[in-house]
Amino acid sequence: MIAIDLARLIQLTPKPVVDRARSCISRVLYNRVRDSDDAGFKYLEVILRSRCQDSDHSYLTVVRFDRFGVIKNPVHHPTWVRCSCPYFLYYVEVALSRHGSTSVYYSNGMYPMIRNPKLRPYMCKHLISSVNPAVHTLQQEMRAEQKKTEGLGAKIRKLPGMLKRLLRRGRDSEERPGSDII
Question: Whole-prediction pTM value?
Fold first, then answer.
């Protein structure tokens, strides 16, 4: 199953969650390019620590960009995510796993019948705050890869503007056309 792309995950995230993400800071702990996934493609995994001003806890977030060798535009590329926060556990982990954007790791795999009964896939505030550092890390890795193989220069420069526009457009999921499909 192909994961949901990063732009779609941001669009599906409710506006209150995006607004709460403004109080969070994420720092890259490390990143690694893995040799292959199930289909035999390389992928880049960025591990971050996210901490919000309204909490004493920090949470581990993972953003994985699949098929690293063939990424043309990471914003519109399948992305796999994970967060260790309770919100991710109780609201979105099972919904995202049904769409191929995470694996059931923290929860027991039961459907969130009370918290997210329609199984809408979206990200928690820690993952939203982790998007910019993760894409920045991806850009650095793409530049390093570009030095080996040429051709991605113009697309790398466009990414920060695209992310800012997507984050500004955060709307309630009920207002989004086609949000009831997923």
Answer: 0.73
Confidence of residue 27 (pLDDT cuts 50, 70, 90): very high
Q: Where do the domains of the chain lie?
A: 6-168
Give the rounded distance of the alpha carbon of 18 from its chain centre: 13
- Hey, what are 42's tokens? 């390389």
pLDDT tier for residue 174 given thresholds of 50, 70 and 90: very low
How many Å apart are CA 129 and CA 26, to the nearest integer?
A: 6
Work out the number of other CB atoms within 10 angstroms of the CB of residue 34: 13
Rounded Cα distance, 98 and 108, in Å:
14
CA end-to-end span of the chain: 15
Instruction: Give the per-residue pLDDT at 142.
Output: 78
Q: Look at residue 48 in the predicted model and tell me its pLDDT.
A: 93
Question: To which residue do tokens 């990414």 refer?
Answer: 159
